[in-house]
Amino acid sequence: MLNGKLDFRSDTITEPTEEMREAMKRARVGDDGREGDPTVRELEEYSAQLLGKEAGLFVISGTMGNLVSVLTHTRHGQEVILERDAHLFWTEVAGIAAVGGLLVNRVAGADGIMAAEDVAAAVRPAKLHFPETGLICLENTHNMAGGTVWSVAQMAAVKAVASRHGIPVHLDGARIFNAAVALGVPAKDIAGQTDSATFCLSKGLSAPIGSLIVGTRTFIEAAKKKRQMLGGTTRQGGVIAAAGLVALKTMVDRLAEDHALARRLAEKLSSVAGLEVNLRTVQTNIVRTKVSGLGVPAAKVAELLAKENVHVLAQQADTLRWLTHRHVTAADVD
Ligand code: TLP
């Protein structure tokens, strides 16, 4: 329950903890566009170390993190391979096409997971008429597939294809810590399969603002320039980075509770007549329910539920999305 609402729309609605608010108040700051902000730098270094990369870069959102990363890896006119239902394709306002001049090549995955051979088949052969494949993007966990998790081995198989062709791989790891908790591995094992990764502080981890890009030092230096171009350099960013450090140090392990609650929710919803729940894809904190059996569009169902103080997202015409997070309890689910 948050502000009197049963709000399952997204984990992005989570509010900063008291410890985060205290850390924000006390944060040491500087001008991050000049000599640097010490707290932003600490967050960047901590993130890089956590994900096993050389360097990190603070950005305002996951959308900016993905765009900056894609721009840094590619050149205008190249093609990017991504999964058919990638967040980068559906819900990032075509930034990579509009700003990056990139063509997208969508590969259909099973529950959001692309098979390495399908990725290999999508790589463009060197031919006069073809664009060059400039990048492969993965998403772990996969939002539209219902929070599904790529195993480290599945990612490694795609990375092997990419390496064979000399193509870099970027990870949209907005919810990488949900994936790590679900797999029971450190997040660096997941990020270790890609050249760069973006992850969010402001989803299940409850920080108010912010995402990180991690990669090699050279990559991050180039990414800094793209971030500046997009107007993303902060000044006294330490005020928000301080909350991000608390998020990484105190909020990761508890994601297991969100996963258990999602399972409980999915099982209960699956017994409701007219709803169809694919329990196989309930692997982290996302539950998708098809409402076709109710004979009304998802948007209408969401509207009616809101009247009962249950807030959900109509993610597709026939599908509702429910997310569990820190402000949802077992009693709320029941
Ligand atoms: N996802 C949001 C919405 O789609 C707005 C949500 O509620 O799930 N990658 C993935 C996989 C994401 O789920 C999101 C946000 C982003 C990138 C973008 O992050 P932000 O919202 O910080 O720009």
Layout: helices, strands, pairs:
Elements (H helix, E strand, L loop, with lengths): L5 E2 L10 H9 L11 H13 L4 E5 L2 H12 L5 E5 L3 H4 L4 H4 L4 E5 L8 H7 L10 E7 L12 H14 L3 E4 L3 H8 L3 H5 L4 E5 L10 E5 L1 H13 L8 H13 L4 H15 L6 E2 L8 E5 L7 H10 L2 E2 L1 E4 L2 E5 L6 H4 L1
Parallel strand pairs: 1-11, 3-4, 3-5, 5-6, 6-7
Antiparallel strand pairs: 2-8, 7-8, 9-10, 10-13, 12-13
The structure holds ligand TLP.
Structure, explained:
The protein has 334 residues and is an alpha/beta fold. The chain has helices at residues 18-26, 38-50, 62-73, 87-90, 95-98, 116-122, 152-165, 176-183, 187-191, 217-229, 238-250, 255-269, 298-307, 330-333, and strands spanning 6-7, 55-59, 79-83, 103-107, 133-139, 169-172, 196-200, 211-215, 276-277, 286-290, 310-311, 313-316, 319-323. It has a seven-stranded mixed β-sheet, sandwiched between helices. It is globular. The two termini are 12 Å apart. Bound molecules: ligand TLP. Ligand TLP binds at residues 10, 12, 61-63, 66, 87, 91, 139, 143, 172, 174, 200, 211.
Summarize the structure.
The protein is of the alpha/beta class and 334 residues long.
Strand order of the main beta sheet, please? 2-8-7-6-5-3-4
The bound ligands are: ligand TLP
Helix segment count?
Answer: 14
Order of helices and strands: EHHEHEHHEHEHEHHEEHHHEEHEEEH
Shape: globular
Approximate helicity band = 25-40%
Structural class: alpha/beta
Hey, roughly how much beta strand do the residues contain?
Answer: 15-25%
Measure the end-to-end span: 12 Å
Q: Taking Cα atoms only, what radius of gyration do you get, to the nearest Å?
A: 20 Å
The oligomeric state is: single chain
- Total beta-strand segments: 13
Largest sheet: 7 strands, mixed
Overall pLDDT level: 97
Could you name the ranges where pLDDT drops below 50 across 5 or more consecutive residues? none
